[in-house]
Task: structure prediction
Amino acid sequence: MREELYRAELWLNRNFNDAKRLEADERMLEVLEGRLASCVAKYETDGTQSRDSDAARARHEDTLLDYSTQKQKVETESKKLMAEITKTRAAIDELGDNDLIAVAVDRYINRLRWKDISKVEHVSHATVYRLRLKMLEKMAEILHKKNLI
Result:
């Protein structure tokens, strides 16, 4: 039975690295937005200073290309992740017990740490771990019936 609990938890955690990657790519998109705004500001002031306006335009175009490529990457990753999160949420909703659903959503969708879940749910750490074990047992049954593990 422990093996099935482990596999259930692996299935629930399968999106964790994708979500971290998406967050990093979104931060990169913000950096590119800042660079794009900086390029525009420099481009607008190039006529009054001794800067090369052609070089500024070229930098702006390069940054714009990088931005559009990164934006497309973020949108693609986001759609893929949302589809997987929807599958995870559907499986979690089959648990039936609101306490178990809350713990599972906080951990595997919202990616909270166990100690943060105990604060949010207003229960002790020990209770959170008991709920986790009970939730994983039920989730293993659900995933096994659906042939997902």
User: Anything to note?
Assistant: The longest helix spans residues 53-93. The helical segments are 2-12, 16-45, 53-93, 98-109, 114-121, 125-145. The two ends are 13 Å apart (CA to CA). The chain is about 85% helix and 0% strand.
